[in-house]
């Protein structure tokens, strides 16, 4: 085979793979849409039963019992209750129990919720295959332009969600919000951002690309999950405030917000998630600086992308400081978290689209 | 149960704030206390108040926010440090706004007075924060964790049971257990106090100190850095002295003696490009083959420099930053004498490397009348010429090169003292050679072809094409320190965020009925599910060593806050 023929053949396979990838991405969008409707059904059915909700709240409490210790005594095994630990929340926090979740204790709702999660898993697998096919077609990591970045980003965000579910964390309530944004993200990717990209420019050939960009995508996905929790916290918090001060929230708020975890739980979840990735985000920026040092001759040059990564970093540091400062807990800290995520979003979309700099290589 | 602190509005069963924990909750972190009280003590008082404010968390928060805010305009407004021409364009298009921006230093935000002021304040605040915290932490390491508060029931995690074991026995067992679990534990009166997770504080301090190291290293690097560019044609060389650079920038404290002695020769530049598909023409690989030597008379080594792989010699790094073509030109006068023979670098205009340049014959040329003149030949170069695309190359590689030349003669104005770009022709004192129709002579040459100048004025030959590469030589000292600081920061941060500092108390006393009551409580710096979990595990182990009397199942968890607390209080008095 001549060299030219071999290249031709390779190009043909690549185009074939790229087509497969596109089909997979569209299919995953279809499945995500089904999951979306299943989540909607879960929420709708869940609004039916107030009784179920109370019951679920009670059983949830019962589940929180301390683990039992098994002690062997004279040949026979007896199960001894370990002394149980009583937990008190800190001063000033409301003692509101977590809501029962979207299904509100309704059995049918719960069933739809489970279907929705199964569909999310399926859609995730299809999307993942799409991303892998894309990577194979371009023979490099699938993050050379914003289209690829978007599809990888939503895959990772869903993976984070499913991972938390697998770890038995109480995050089922995230499902609807997550899948909605994943659909938006993918819609944007296949319409506005689609690029039938080929190779990277030499400045992007580096193993730091793999390290820097993969951690950036992962951090973004986790920050995103944190941001959703923060928004829900803000809603739930004003809802609880209203109830505590004797007000009556609207019917919609009553039905939806009541089923979410308590504001304190949402707040704590958001904090944990943001705090957990902050070191990784720090690492991402440093890895970027090392890469820039190799590629551009300086590790830090206040390029717009670098600047906005720094701004995002400082904003999250503000948020963490606010959490450590007594007067700034709660809503104020939550606003800072939203601001920080806003910076992240702007760094991703805004800087690529509105600002030119060394990073705006991929022509969107 | 009576209220111990009447100031607390909370009812007896409501959770109670730190103030109720007294010494037990103190110094669980080294975060400074917030106070807003106004000073009353003259100048010294004010100075102290100011210092306390500057080093408070609230002000640190504010300064952090200000740094983030201040960094924004620099990313939206063109900066003279990165793109001076864009700044000039901006000022030309918006003269009034440009003036305002200039006065505010918005064209060089990151070195402007106000931005520096904010980050220097943050820097001072950081130091002012770290020093007392370090002392405080050392003090905490030397002292022992405080004894149990009176009412353990009020702590975030609590458990109790009754046992037949003697109180002393239980305390001994608890001490041994806590020590085994690597708590710093000791016996104080009727209870055992233990504390763990000091690494959190170490990590936090290390992180903040690492920030200082990073900032200092960055500033140092800016002050002592140097950065120069040099265009080198294949076959030519460069040695690292100031005069050899095409342009050179350096930090305020840089000294020319700081230049690392090195030299290199460009043997060959290779560029390959995507030949098909939607990204046809996208560069795949740039690489420059060099022979370099360290020091003034070092031995030659061969190496390849690629875009992401600079050549590092001492503090200096040699980067490959650009490339282009340099047609090899021979100019002869009317008598056939060679008056110019050199490769002339052309400046790329687009991604397909359509290039322009000027061939300047400054001396040695005499026109047919025998008068000395200068020649300026304006050149336009297409590495891949395709019929139909006369003015733009269609591919970046050297597939079908064509050199378009338009010769002029006269005075190039090079000696006038006004600096002139080597890529531009000053046409004010030159006349164009005319073709047979009286228009400016202009001809396309392929390699090997020669163009005759009219009237026996000589000839220009396009011999072939060399490539050139641009090298940026950068020296930025202290980048090792910056990296070390960065890595420390990451690990410090991880320790600070993932390790929980917490205390555990075990109290064992004889109850009113003669049976030993064991109480355990845990307190973390922040609320965390880990504290009760860990307490549960410790309680499980201790419970096995001091089990409940077999008939007594009254250690009912739900009754804890009433009967359990009451009996232990009774024992205290
Ligand atoms: C230069 C920018 C700074 C950054 C990026 C930064 C970042 C951080 C981070 C990420 C934490 C961990 C927060 C947590 O435990 O949840 C932290 C804690 C802390 N920071 Fe900073 N910090 C900075 C400057 C300062 C300054 C100037 C001060 C002094 C006023 C300060 C005082 C503290 C204190 C006292 C803590 C520990 C809080 C505690 O133990 O509860 N930081 N910082």
TrEMBL record, chain A:
<feature type="transmembrane region" description="Helical">
    <location>
        <begin position="333"/>
        <end position="351"/>
    </location>
</feature>
<dbReference type="InterPro" id="IPR017562">
    <property type="entry name" value="Cyt_c_biogenesis_CcsA"/>
</dbReference>
<feature type="domain" description="Cytochrome c assembly protein">
    <location>
        <begin position="143"/>
        <end position="355"/>
    </location>
</feature>
<dbReference type="GO" id="GO:0020037">
    <property type="term" value="F:heme binding"/>
</dbReference>
<feature type="transmembrane region" description="Helical">
    <location>
        <begin position="269"/>
        <end position="292"/>
    </location>
</feature>
<feature type="transmembrane region" description="Helical">
    <location>
        <begin position="115"/>
        <end position="137"/>
    </location>
</feature>
<feature type="transmembrane region" description="Helical">
    <location>
        <begin position="174"/>
        <end position="195"/>
    </location>
</feature>
<keyword id="KW-0812">Transmembrane</keyword>
<dbReference type="InterPro" id="IPR002541">
    <property type="entry name" value="Cyt_c_assembly"/>
</dbReference>
<feature type="transmembrane region" description="Helical">
    <location>
        <begin position="207"/>
        <end position="235"/>
    </location>
</feature>
<keyword id="KW-0201">Cytochrome c-type biogenesis</keyword>
<protein>
    <submittedName>
        <fullName>Cytochrome C biogenesis protein</fullName>
    </submittedName>
</protein>
<dbReference type="Pfam" id="PF01578">
    <property type="entry name" value="Cytochrom_C_asm"/>
</dbReference>
<feature type="transmembrane region" description="Helical">
    <location>
        <begin position="307"/>
        <end position="326"/>
    </location>
</feature>
<keyword id="KW-1133">Transmembrane helix</keyword>
<dbReference type="InterPro" id="IPR045062">
    <property type="entry name" value="Cyt_c_biogenesis_CcsA/CcmC"/>
</dbReference>
<dbReference type="GO" id="GO:0017004">
    <property type="term" value="P:cytochrome complex assembly"/>
</dbReference>
<dbReference type="GO" id="GO:0005886">
    <property type="term" value="C:plasma membrane"/>
</dbReference>
<keyword id="KW-0472">Membrane</keyword>
<feature type="transmembrane region" description="Helical">
    <location>
        <begin position="149"/>
        <end position="167"/>
    </location>
</feature>
<feature type="transmembrane region" description="Helical">
    <location>
        <begin position="24"/>
        <end position="45"/>
    </location>
</feature>
UniProtKB/TrEMBL annotation, chain B:
<keyword id="KW-1133">Transmembrane helix</keyword>
<dbReference type="InterPro" id="IPR023494">
    <property type="entry name" value="Cyt_c_bgen_Ccs1/CcsB/ResB"/>
</dbReference>
<feature type="transmembrane region" description="Helical">
    <location>
        <begin position="480"/>
        <end position="499"/>
    </location>
</feature>
<feature type="domain" description="ResB-like">
    <location>
        <begin position="57"/>
        <end position="535"/>
    </location>
</feature>
<keyword id="KW-0201">Cytochrome c-type biogenesis</keyword>
<feature type="transmembrane region" description="Helical">
    <location>
        <begin position="205"/>
        <end position="224"/>
    </location>
</feature>
<feature type="compositionally biased region" description="Low complexity">
    <location>
        <begin position="563"/>
        <end position="573"/>
    </location>
</feature>
<dbReference type="GO" id="GO:0017004">
    <property type="term" value="P:cytochrome complex assembly"/>
</dbReference>
<keyword id="KW-0812">Transmembrane</keyword>
<feature type="transmembrane region" description="Helical">
    <location>
        <begin position="113"/>
        <end position="135"/>
    </location>
</feature>
<dbReference type="InterPro" id="IPR007816">
    <property type="entry name" value="ResB-like_domain"/>
</dbReference>
<protein>
    <submittedName>
        <fullName>Cytochrome C biogenesis protein</fullName>
    </submittedName>
</protein>
<feature type="compositionally biased region" description="Low complexity">
    <location>
        <begin position="1"/>
        <end position="15"/>
    </location>
</feature>
<keyword id="KW-0472">Membrane</keyword>
<feature type="region of interest" description="Disordered">
    <location>
        <begin position="541"/>
        <end position="573"/>
    </location>
</feature>
<dbReference type="Pfam" id="PF05140">
    <property type="entry name" value="ResB"/>
</dbReference>
<feature type="region of interest" description="Disordered">
    <location>
        <begin position="1"/>
        <end position="21"/>
    </location>
</feature>
<feature type="transmembrane region" description="Helical">
    <location>
        <begin position="59"/>
        <end position="77"/>
    </location>
</feature>
<dbReference type="GO" id="GO:0016020">
    <property type="term" value="C:membrane"/>
</dbReference>
């Amino acid at each position: 085979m001549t060299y030219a023929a071999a290249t031709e053949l390779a190009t043909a396979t690549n185009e074939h793979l790229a087509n497969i990838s596109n089909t997979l991405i569209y299919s995953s969008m279809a499945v995500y849409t089904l999951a979306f409707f299943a989540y909607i059904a879960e929420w709708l059915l869940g609004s039916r039963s107030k009784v179920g909700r109370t019951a679920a709240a009670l059983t949830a409490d019962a589940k929180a019992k301390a683990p039992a210790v098994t002690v062997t005594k004279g040949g026979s095994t007896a199960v001894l209750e370990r002394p149980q630990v009583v937990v008190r929340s800190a001063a000033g926090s409301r003692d509101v129990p977590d809501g029962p979740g979207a299904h509100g204790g309704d059995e049918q709702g719960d069933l739809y919720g489970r279907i929705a999660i199964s569909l999310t898993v399926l859609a995730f697998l299809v999307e993942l295959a799409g991303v892998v096919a894309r990577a194979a077609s371009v023979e490099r990591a699938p993050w050379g332009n914003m289209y690829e970045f978007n599809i990888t980003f939503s895959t990772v965000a869903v993976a984070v969600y499913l991972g938390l579910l697998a770890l038995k964390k109480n995050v089922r309530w995230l499902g609807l919000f997550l899948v909605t944004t994943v659909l938006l993200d993918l819609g944007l990717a296949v319409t506005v951002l689609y690029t039938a990209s080929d190779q990277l420019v030499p400045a992007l050939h580096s193993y730091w690309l793999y390290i820097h960009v993969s951690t950036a995508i992962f951090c973004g996905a986790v920050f995103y999950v944190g941001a959703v929790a923060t928004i829900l916290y803000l809603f739930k918090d004003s809802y609880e405030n209203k109830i505590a001060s004797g007000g009556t929230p609207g019917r919609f708020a009553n039905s939806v917000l009541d089923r979410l975890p308590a504001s304190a739980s949402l707040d704590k979840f958001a904090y944990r998630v943001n705090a957990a990735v902050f070191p990784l985000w720090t690492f991402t920026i440093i890895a970027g600086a090392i890469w820039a040092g190799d590629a551009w001759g300086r590790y830090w040059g206040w390029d717009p992308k670098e600047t906005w990564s720094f701004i995002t970093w400082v904003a999250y540091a503000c948020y963490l400081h606010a959490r450590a400062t007594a007067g700034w807990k709660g809503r104020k800290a939550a606003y800072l978290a939203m601001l920080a995520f806003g910076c992240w979003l702007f760094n991703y979309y805004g800087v690529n689209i509105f600002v030119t700099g060394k990073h705006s290589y991929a022509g969107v | 149960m009576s209220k111990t602190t009447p100031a607390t509005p909370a009812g007896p069963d409501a959770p109670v704030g730190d103030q109720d924990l007294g010494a037990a909750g103190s110094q669980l972190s080294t975060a400074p206390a917030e106070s807003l009280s106004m000073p009353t003590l003259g100048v010294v008082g004010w100075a102290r108040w100011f210092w306390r404010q500057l080093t408070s968390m609230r002000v640190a928060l504010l300064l952090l926010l200000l740094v983030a805010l201040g960094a924004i305009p620099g990313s939206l407004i063109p900066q003279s440090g990165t793109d001076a021409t864009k700044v000039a364009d901006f000022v030309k298009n918006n003269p009034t706004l440009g003036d305002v921006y200039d006065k505010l230093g918005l064209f060089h935000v990151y070195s402007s007075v106000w931005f520096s002021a904010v980050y220097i304040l943050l820097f001072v605040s950081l130091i002012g924060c770290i020093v007392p915290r370090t002392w405080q932490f050392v003090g905490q390491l030397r002292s022992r964790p405080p004894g149990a508060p009176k009412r353990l029931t009020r702590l975030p995690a609590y458990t109790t049971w009754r046992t037949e074991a003697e109180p002393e026995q239980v305390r001994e067992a608890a001490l041994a257990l806590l020590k085994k679990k690597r708590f710093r534990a000791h016996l104080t009166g009727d209870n055992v106090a233990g504390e763990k997770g000091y690494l959190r504080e170490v990590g936090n301090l290390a992180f903040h100190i690492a920030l200082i190291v990073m900032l200092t290293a960055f500033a140092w690097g800016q002050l002592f850095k140097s950065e120069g560019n040099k265009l080198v044609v294949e076959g030519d060389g460069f040695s690292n002295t100031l005069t050899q650079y095409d342009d050179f920038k350096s930090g305020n404290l840089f000294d020319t003696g700081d230049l690392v002695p090195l030299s290199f020769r460009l043997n060959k530049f290779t560029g390959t490009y995507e030949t098909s598909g939607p990204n046809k023409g996208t560069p795949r690989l740039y690489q420059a083959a060099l022979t370099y030597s360290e020091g003034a008379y070092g031995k030659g080594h061969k190496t390849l420099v690629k875009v992401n792989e600079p050549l590092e010699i001492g503090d200096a790094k040699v980067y490959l930053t650009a490339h282009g073509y340099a047609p090899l030109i021979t100019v002869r006068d009317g008598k056939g004498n060679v008056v110019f023979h050199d490769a002339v670098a052309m400046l790329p205009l687009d991604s397909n490397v359509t290039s322009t340049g000027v061939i300047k014959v400054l001396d040695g040329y005499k026109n047919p009348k025998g008068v000395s003149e200068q020649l300026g030949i304006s050149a336009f170069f297409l590495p891949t010429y395709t019929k139909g695309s006369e003015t733009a190359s269609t591919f970046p590689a050297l597939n079908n090169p064509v050199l378009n030349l338009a010769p002029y003669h006269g005075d190039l104005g090079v000696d006038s003292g006004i600096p002139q770009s080597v890529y531009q022709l000053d046409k004010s004192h030159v006349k164009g050679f005319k073709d047979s129709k009286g228009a400016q002579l202009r001809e396309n040459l392929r390699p090997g072809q020669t163009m005759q100048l009219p009237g026996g004025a000589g000839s220009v030959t396009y011999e072939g094409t060399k490539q050139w590469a641009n090298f940026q030589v950068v020296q930025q000292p202290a980048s090792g320190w910056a990296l070390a600081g960065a890595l420390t920061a990451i690990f410090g941060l991880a320790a600070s965020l993932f390790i929980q500092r917490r205390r555990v108390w075990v109290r064992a006393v004889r109850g009113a009925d003669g049976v030993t009551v064991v109480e355990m409580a845990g307190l973390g710096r922040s609320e965390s599910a880990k504290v009760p979990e860990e307490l549960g595990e410790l309680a499980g182990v201790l419970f096995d060593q001091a089990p409940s009397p077999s008939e007594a199942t009254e250690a009912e968890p739900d009754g804890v806050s009433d009967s359990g607390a009451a009996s232990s209080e009774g024992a205290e008095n």
